Amino acid sequence: MTGPIHHPGEDLLLEYAAGSMPEPLALLVATHLTLCPACRAEAARLETLGGAMLEEIGPEPVSESLLDRVLDCLDDAAELAPQAGARPATDAPFAVPMPLARYLGESFGGLGWRSMIGLKEVELLKGRPGFTTRLMRIAPGAVMPRHTHEGAEMTLVLAGGFTDRGNHFVRGDVAIAGPDDDHQPVADADGECICLAVTSAPLRLTGPIGRYLNPFIRI
Amino acid sequence: MTLSDAYDLQSLMAAIAVDRDRGAFASLFRVMAPRIKAYLRRLGATDEVAEDLVQDVMLTVWRRAVQFDPAKASASTWIFTIARNRRIDVLRRERRPEIDPEDPALVADAPPAADDALEAADMGERLHSAMQGLPEGQLSLLKLAYFEDLSHSQIAERMDLPLGTVKSRLRLATARLKSVLEHIA
Ligand SMILES: [Zn+2]
Ligand SMILES: [Zn+2]
């Protein structure tokens, strides 16, 4: 069996398949699905259930003219090519999965990275109430300040790896930290670690340095 | 008898994709349009918006029919994903992140076992009866999960149930239905 060993979990796959998941989380899940055949198969099964649910739903009659209106449009309706794929940034130091590439544009270096101690980050999907979506480049061996979250934090590794609370995460793996998890991820020493992180509420830093940094840095 | 079998949706889709058969399209419309409309109405669309979206979804079915792969999904599953994505676009005004099957970064599936391909019709029949057999408490949560644009914690709030109960009931329901999709004979 190839693929990641840390997954988002079935509850989230169901929300993704049903389409009730907010876009920031759906972006992270779709990117994981690109890298994880097991979850991809699971999501396909949950979509099959969606199709079966649609068959079983109590139908609501449509206007009598609707079919004619649709038939009238068929001639104008050229076949659609598959959705044009985004052109992934060629300067990215890893293969960018297509769901993420659509949000990055063509220059990875030109994303407007903000530099902080031990990492650079850029915010994606700005202005989504309740969510912060960030791409992070963590320096080799960097130790993140200890912190907790008010909400959940999901982190998908895109390149390199990190260790958190005894687990090691590499490309494709998803780390989930709940509101009560006080943690301190450490990037692998042998290269930059690049992650997509979605948090559902602002973080509080708890370590001595963290308290000092709190107004300036969010991990 | 499931809807798919009763109307042979797979054959209708094949006739639309290969022969561009308008009669088949009209038949598919008569079966699926009222169901797509019901789906959109449950998601809060007004009658008018729901019918505009039904039109949109059915035209997308016509345009994308050549991409329909009966080996990968049943017709109703494929139509469900089109309707779901359109309503996310229009009703929620968000983009729907999706995998791209042609993505060079895609990590390939393990090759499927030889006996993995359960006949779609056979599978539909079993899925249908498994769904009929679900306890009402599980089926109603499943409907909320698929038809109401609610996260699991919102479902818990709406039903006044602990989140853990919602998750475990949904897991029981999906496990029972998925066992139909996973196990052959
Ligand atoms: Zn996975
Ligand atoms: Zn954290």
TrEMBL record, chain A:
Highest taxon, organism lineage: Bacteria
SUPFAM superfamilies reported in the protein's UniProt record: RmlC-like cupins (SSF51182)
Residues in ChrR-like cupin domain copies: 122-196
NCBIfam families according to UniProt: anti_sig_ChrR
Protein name: ChrR family anti-sigma-E factor
Organism the protein comes from: Futiania mangrovi
UniProtKB/TrEMBL annotation, chain B:
CDD domains tied to this protein: Sigma70_r4
Gene Ontology BP annotations: DNA-templated transcription initiation
Keywords: DNA-binding, Sigma factor, Transcription, Transcription regulation
Source organism superkingdom: Bacteria
Domain RNA polymerase sigma factor 70 region 4 type span(s) in chain numbering: 125-177
PROSITE patterns the UniProt entry points to: SIGMA70_ECF
Similarity comment: Belongs to the sigma-70 factor family. ECF subfamily.
Protein name according to UniProt: RNA polymerase sigma factor
